[in-house]
Every structure is written in C-alpha cells, then in structure tokens.
Design a protein that fits this description.
This protein has a single domain, classed as Mitochondrial carrier fold. It has a two-stranded antiparallel ribbon. Helix 1 crosses helix 2, helix 3 runs antiparallel to helix 4 and helix 4 crosses helix 6. Helices cover 71% and strands 2% of the residues. The chain is globular. With 317 residues, it is mainly α. The chain contains 9 helices and 2 strands, in the order H-H-H-H-H-H-H-E-E-H-H. It is a multi-pass membrane protein.
Length: 317
C-alpha cells in the first residue's frame, strides 16, 4: 500500500523532511567531499596539472587521516550541515510546488511527470537553495581545502564557521559572502535538473514494470543510485569551477573593491583550466566526487522517502 498522504505536504513540511534527509547523508559523504576539494585544487593553473601532492582519492584519504586525523577528514562538517538544510531543504521542498506550477502554465495535469517541467523545477529549486546556502558552501570549501601539513591551492584558516563568516564580512562585507554564487547556481542547477527527474523516472519504471513495490526501500535505493550517477556526470566540470572560485586568493583594486585574483566567473575558470591543464582537469577529483555524490544522493533520496513515509503515518494517525 502506498505511503503517500491523502493531503499533500506543505512546502514547509517538504523543506523540513528534505533537510533532515540531507543532514543524515552529509554526515557520511563529507569525508569524500574533503578529498574531492583537495584533488580539484592541486596543480591549479599549472602546466599539465603540475606536481601531484595526492595521487588518487585513497591516497588523499590516507594522507589526510595520518596527518590530520578525524578532524581532517571531517573538515567543514559544521557549515556543510547548514548548507544542506538550505540547499536540499529547498531542492526537495520546492521541487513539487515548482513542478506543479510549471505544469499548470503549460496546461498539463499538476501531478503528471513531464520531462520539461521536471527538469525546469529541479533547476529552479536547486538555484534557490544554492543562493541561500552560498555563504556556508564558501566557508565549507575553504575549511576543507585547508591543511597544515599538505596544503594545495590558496589556504584560508578559520577557527570555526562563525570565525569564517565574521572574517569574510569584515574584509569584504556582503560581496564576500556571495562570492562564487554564479558558479554555485550553475553547478546546483545542473545537478538538480537531473537529480529528482532521473530519480522519479527510474522509480516509475521499476514500479511500472512490476519489479518492486513503490514503497520498498530497494526501490528507493535503486532509483537514487541511478540518480546519483546522473548528477555526478552532469555536474563535475561546474563543481571543479566552483571549488576553485571559492578558494582563489583575492586582491584589492584601487577602487577598494576586492576581486578574485585568478578567475572572473565560472566560464573564465573553466576556460583557463582547460587552456593550462587540459580537459581532464575539469574532472579532477571525479572519483572522489562519485564516492561523495552517489552515496549522498542515495542516502538523501532514500531517507527523504522514508522520512516522508513515517511523517505521513504520524500525520494521518
């Protein structure tokens, strides 16, 4: 029997359920995010990719663990929680309202799965979440890149999230907190445009073919596995650009404005990376990214369905 409630969840209820699911996921996926960030930054704008501090994701994990311990592999977890609440709370909570809105505009039934409106709803809801969470993603990326032993890229040392936000605000005001937001929106829109549509499509195919019931945990796992692979494939180049734009050193112009020293925008970052390091540099850390995005997507979407199911039972007695 389906676990769907007779009365649709409100946007606020969807936001909270999505946020809880994402926070559960990031607890497990954050170490892979640390590895990915460091691999994306090593050899930045060096001809041919420069000298490698880290050979691969396993080497990165091993060196980080030996030199920095648990604190090292979980760097940035605090701001990661806040970011996930804002990003996936928005992405999962606003997806259905946006999809229904776009369906109505095109004259389709609100509940109908239409590829165009599903992709658009995913992209827009992701862009909203990325914009809201940008300051915390910025702090998270800089904290994860920092290593007192094997540094790569520009190094930003902060005691904690509050210290990071205060330091950035003091130096750059609001402009500093929204640094890289264009890259964040690009990255998240690309990922969100395929995350839920691919998940819902796969789930529909599995249930429609009679392979598994709609409320089975195995259905959730299979659907989210396919979704995670799609997200990783589509989002990787924009993710590399985002990491580098967040972490780049800054310089103060004669006008007093503080700008990035290396990149003007995400397109400029991708072009310079391509020109100096080659096309494969766009996919630096892609293995670590997959180890992050696949389990993160699987846990997020599976937990979201499970949490929604439990909440619906409680809500309707």
């Amino acid at each position: 029997m389906s676990q769907k409630p007779t009365k649709p969840l409100s946007t606020a209820e969807g936001f909270i359920c999505g946020a809880l699911a994402a926070c559960t996921a990031v607890t497990f996926s954050n170490p892979a995010e640390v590895m990915k960030t460091r691999m994306q930054l090593q050899g930045e704008l060096a001809k041919g990719g420069g000298e490698k501090v880290y050979k691969n994701v396993f080497d990165t994990f091993g060196k980080t663990w030996r030199n920095e311990g648990l604190k090292g592999i979980q760097r940035g977890l605090g701001p990661a929680y806040i970011y996930q609440i804002l990003l996936n709370g928005s992405r999962l909570g606003f997806y259905e309202p946006f999809r229904g809105f776009f369906n109505r505009i095109l004259g389709n039934p609100v509940k109908e799965q239409v590829v165009l409106t599903s992709v658009a709803a995913g992209a827009v809801s992701g862009a909203v979440g990325a914009s809201l969470g940008n300051p915390f993603f910025l702090v998270k990326a800089r904290m994860q890149a920092y290593s007192p032993v094997l540094p790569v890229g520009a190094q930003h040392y902060y005691k904690n999230s509050y210290d990071a936000l205060r330091t950035i605000w003091k130096a750059e005001r609001f402009r500093g907190l929204i640094r890289g937001v264009d890259a964040a929106v690009l990255r998240t829109s690309m990922g969100s445009s395929v995350q839920l549509p691919s998940y819902n499509w796969t789930k529909g195919q599995i249930v429609g073919a009679g392979l598994l019931p709609a409320d089975s945990t195995w259905t959730f796992l299979a659907s989210s596995s396919v979704s995670g692979a799609c997200v990783c494939l589509v989002m990787q180049p924009a993710d590399t650009a985002l990491t580098r734009m967040y972490n780049q050193p800054t310089t103060k112009l004669p006008t007093g404005r503080i700008v990035g020293l290396l990149y003007k925008n995400p397109i400029d970052c991708l072009w310079k990376t391509l020109r100096t390091e080659g096309a494969f540099a766009w996919y630096k850390g892609s293995t670590a990214h997959f180890f992050r995005i696949a389990p993160h997507t699987i846990i997020t979407l599976t937990m979201n369905d499970l949490i929604l199911g439990v909440y619906s039972k409680v809500r309707h007695g």
